Amino acid sequence: MNLRTTTEFTRAWVSQALGFFYPDACKICGENRATREEGYVCSGCWAQPDGVRFIQPPFCDTCGLPYEGDISHEFECSNCRDMELHFKHARAAVVARGLVLDVIHRYKYQRALWFEPFLADLLIRGAKPDLAAAKADLIIPIPLHSLKRKEREFNQADRLAKALGAATDLPVNKNIVKRVLPTQTQTLLTRKQRARNMRNAFAVTKSEPVKGRRVVLVDDVLTTGATTSACARALRKAGAREIIVWTVARGV
């Protein structure tokens, strides 16, 4: 049996094993069919009022915050006007609400890894055209502090960045930036507290790979942009030419 045959056999075996433990049923409603490739989220749940809402213009030109109504010109939201952000722009594929937010929380905090193809697909749909236009050079996932990573056992940004890199043929490097401060959880903090909490939280361990490069930072959710901006600041100081941010979802 050659290497290719062995690999195909292994994939088939893994697929069958996963099918045994995770039948082709939606993990949201538990009623409709949904496959592993779909991240076990059925089309019916996608289409619910609190289901998947892709972000379309108009949105803030800096952070990608979506707005209702007719705005035909570029604009910046009040959050971005009041903050010093170190990335060129941030974009997200979908709005962080309902189904998407529930899936992200279960994925991150309950190790519901079967949702990963669903989240990766959303990210790729949104980011792939933008990254081609931006002529990006390198993808870097937002790192977790070692204590947080040990507690969670994985970094969702690493895994999502790997999927995006495979879809765009862009290199992914998770070892360039390190989270050096065990920062307080951002969820309950105000905008100013988040920015202060993240100050000096990141350090670049290898500056040569980013010098003069267009870097894409990847994470699961963007809210105020404090975390990604702090990471972008470290990369800019290390010589990165331009930083853009892509996340699966945007808090509103």
Description:
The protein has 252 residues and is of the alpha/beta class. It has one domain (52-250): Rossmann fold, CATH 3.40.50.2020. Helix content is 39%, strand content 14%. It has helices spanning 3-21, 43-46, 78-81, 98-109, 116-134, 146-152, 156-168, 191-198, 226-237, and strands spanning 89-95, 138-141, 177-179, 202-204, 214-222, 242-250. The strands form two sheets. Strands 1-6-5-2 form a four-stranded parallel sheet. A two-stranded antiparallel sheet has the order 3-4. The radius of gyration is 19 Å and the shape is globular.
> Order of strands across the biggest sheet?
1-6-5-2
Largest sheet: 4 strands, parallel
* CATH uppermost class: Alpha Beta
Helix content: 25-40%
As for the CATH topology, it is Rossmann fold
**Rough shape?**
globular
Strand content: 5-15%
Architecture, according to CATH?
3-Layer(aba) Sandwich
Report the end-to-end length measured between terminal Cα atoms.
Answer: 53 Å
DSSP summary, beta strand count:
6
Q: How many helical elements?
A: 9
Order of helices and strands: HHHEHHEHHEHEEHE
- The total number of structural domains is 1
Question: Rg to the nearest angstrom?
Answer: 19 Å
Mean pLDDT equals 88
| Structural class designation | alpha/beta
Low-confidence stretches: none
